[in-house]
Amino acid sequence: MRLIARAVMALTLLLCCGSDGAMAQQKTPVPAPAAAQPSLPVTLEQALYLIRSTLLTLNDANRTGNYTVLRDLAAPDFQARNTAADLGLNFLDLRRRNFDLYGAALLAPQFSDAPALDQQGMLRLAGYIPTRPRQIQFDLTFQTVAGQWRLFAIGIATPEAASSQPQAQATPAKPAVPAQRKAP
Q: Rounded distance, CA 151 to CA 147, Å?
């Protein structure tokens, strides 16, 4: 019985080694990244995760009126500066308008600046989510705490989305005339 078990193990080992050798020979060398490309502090996937998770946590807080989870997931410095009640007041307008931030889950963010570290080593992610009729502009700063990026600062705006028509096609019917003030 032992002899059969050893033979099976030897055969398995031989097959594994043989297939690894074949695989190694078939691999093509991966080209080195171009030296001209700047190194990002996080991968684009990590940046996407940070943006989406932050905006969706804020959305849940707005829907429930409970900002404790948003606060508790943030960096200690953020927690020291903001109570859950403070966050409720800061995002009162979004909550009153029932503004839905779930577009962050579906659409890719557009960066206004590449993800970068500031002088204090904090990660800044800024840009917008191309939702309509209003887009979601974000300016997020993250601090590393125990090896994880945690929210340090958050700025959200919801301006009207830009028109999808190019400017050259939209010509006014008549030229605009500046308004004149009537003399009293």
A: 13
Q: How far is CA 158 from the centre of its chain?
A: 16
Across the strands, what pairs with 149? 144
Q: Which residues, including other chains, have CB under 8 Å from residue 77's CB and lie 6 or more apart?
A: 143, 152
Q: Is 163 helix (H, G, I), strand (E, B) or coil?
A: coil
Distances (CA, A) of 32 to 37, 43, 44, 162: 11, 17, 19, 39
Residue 42 in tokens: 């996080």
C-alpha to C-alpha distance for 117 and 45, rounded to whole angstroms: 17
Do 142 and 125 meet the contact criterion of CB atoms below 8 Å apart? Answer: yes
Measured between alpha carbons, how far is 118 from 143 in angstroms, rounded to an integer? Answer: 10
Calculate the dihedral angle through the C-alpha atoms of 100, 106, 107, 109, rounding to the nearest 10 degrees: 80
Are 127 and 109 spatial neighbours (Cβ–Cβ below 8 Å)?
Answer: yes
Give the H/E segment covering residue 78: helix 76-81
Chain segment 71-103, per-residue pLDDT in tens: 999 999 999 999 999 999 999 999 999 999 998
The predicted model scores a pTM of: 0.68
Report residue 31 as tokens: 């080209």
Contact 114, 100 (CB under 8 A): no
Q: Which residue, chain included where needed, has tokens 């028109």?
A: 163
